[in-house]
Write the structure tokens for this entry.
Amino acid sequence: MDSSTRIQHLLEVSNLTKYFDAGRGRKVHAVEHVSFAVDEGMTFGLVGESGCGKSSCARTIIRIYEPTEGTILFEGKDVSHLSQRILQPLRRDMQMIFQDPYASLNARMTVRDIIAEPLLAHHVVKKREEANEIVFRMLERVGLTREHANRYAHEFSGGQRQRVGIARALVLQPKLVICDEPISALDVSIQAQVVNLLREYQDESGIAYLFIAHDLSMVRYVSDAVGVMYLGELVETAETDELYRNPLHPYTRGLLNSIPVANPKLARQRNQSGIEGDIPSPIDPPAGCRFHTRCPYAKPICAEETPLLKNQGNGHLCACHLYD
Amino acid sequence: MEQKWEMLSSSNEDREKIWSRSRTFAGDVWFRFRHKPTALAGLVLIAVLMAFAFFGPLFTKYDYAEQNLTVVNIPPRMTVYDAPDGNGYLTITQNLKLLRVDQDGRLGEQLSRVRDDDARSMTIFDCGGTEVGLYYGKTPYKVCNPDKLTVYHHRTIWNRSYLLGTDALGRDILTRLMYGTRVSLMVAFVAAFVNMIVGIVYGGISGYVGGMTDQIMMRIVDVISTIPLTLYVILIMVIMGSGLQSIIVALGSVYWVDMARVVRGQVLSLKNQEFVVAARTIGSSTRTILFQHLIPNAMGSILVTVTMLIPSAIFMEAFLGFLGIGLQPPLASLGTMCNDATENLRTSPYQLFIPALVIVLIMFGFNFVGDGLRDALDPKLKK
């Protein structure tokens, strides 16, 4: 990319680092030196095992957590160290869908009030009553009816609740929605429903998603580009087709091999195994390449030197000593 | 039914429809509350006591301060002697006088004294022309015929003039009880309300802001609660002087400590819940987060704490009254009534039993309601 004609990304995260204090001077290395970009109308998928820092990364980007280091450029503006007061109007363009549709809706509020809350917070409407029309339209947009507006969250099923959460995130027509594992708490038939809803909305409005999941097939289905995270670090990132066709990092390969295959004949042919062992503690991550403790191809250098993300062609970035 | 397995048509509307009846959170709580007999009994008890305290005075012909020294310490159930003139009964008052009592048990006039007969330990009264003697040589005192020295036939009947008897100043205990219950309930409600507000604000700020502010605010609470709260209340009462306002101020300014702890704990656990995080990412103001998300969700525990606080405030007020630093006479409260009763405890124990019973009923009522509320507000017990 020529630096003079550099395209402005909608969201550009560079070198993002988040440490949590674990007491007694120890730190949880939740997110370390993560860089990626999301363009308008695009979906960037972030995958990895549980505990690899995907959600921490998302929450740092939306400034629920304060970043330890690095910059977050949203529409070219550095939001990484703005105070919450200055950040407030910017939140209108950056919303979030939460993983747990049960915990993320206030049990004491009706669906109408839940969806109207962003409208009131950003003074789109002055009074609660004025929000009604927008709320009804939004409810119908996510496949619910206006009769649902007076119901409380606990009366809904999981899928319906998640659609209420989506309606709340989309009602301000933001430019970016961070979907923090929006489907992992739902059963499979509902997952497709929710994901299709998100995609349809993207086609209509050109919204961008940062889509976080641990379900690789779902990420392949929704994303334009994918980043793979391991123990707080981004180990590989590429266009979706490129990544799934030609995974470079041993961790990515292991992940892809762990996708269940429906056809038992094909499954038997697959001789490569998934990843062995457990993810190491993020309080004291391994030196060098973080993955070397579980990597089948580990070399001596892997334990000493941290590999950098390097372009392996086709915009395919991978951090692994195998490709040095 | 040949085509048992035929697919029924279903529209999207049907699939999304919620068939259960819509029930608000409050409706849900009420549903669980009324299915618990003790809680309901407590609620009824409180309602009855409140009706007694607030509407009772409309039906009584006495005033709480009205003294009648001729009818001192008359019990609700009296021992009466047949009047020799056949006109009702006679009863002995505590200051050794004879009172007429009619057939139904209503008190009449006092008999006039004719002379003392010290030799026979008797006072002679005039009862419609006949002389009757009040023998005070040995307890229990008796009414007798001074000539034949025979005790008149006696029996016990209910006091119809003063249903619960009179106190040492001849005031109607029932009327004083109504006013006393009223004062006690009022003190308790106002104190509980003040505590609730102070506790919510203090605990809310401490829990929500967190960090150093929380540390300092909670240490202050710790310091306050190391000294028994009773002592504070007494000290405040000593400084401010006795009276209704000072009781309310004293109770209100001390008991918020528990409430603040409860609210802080709730806010601490709630503020990291996903729906509060969601409100922050939406960009809602701190005010919205506090008053729409945190406080409504903490309201359950707050209500339970308040209903538990009311009986302790009532008890505290009664205790202060009992010590004599509560309300000043002639105002009545349950505690001052108990205090007044102790002077005549041996001769008129009913004066202590009656207000004590009311205190017990109030405590029972509120504790039952508090218990019931706690269970009803616990969503884990949802049916």
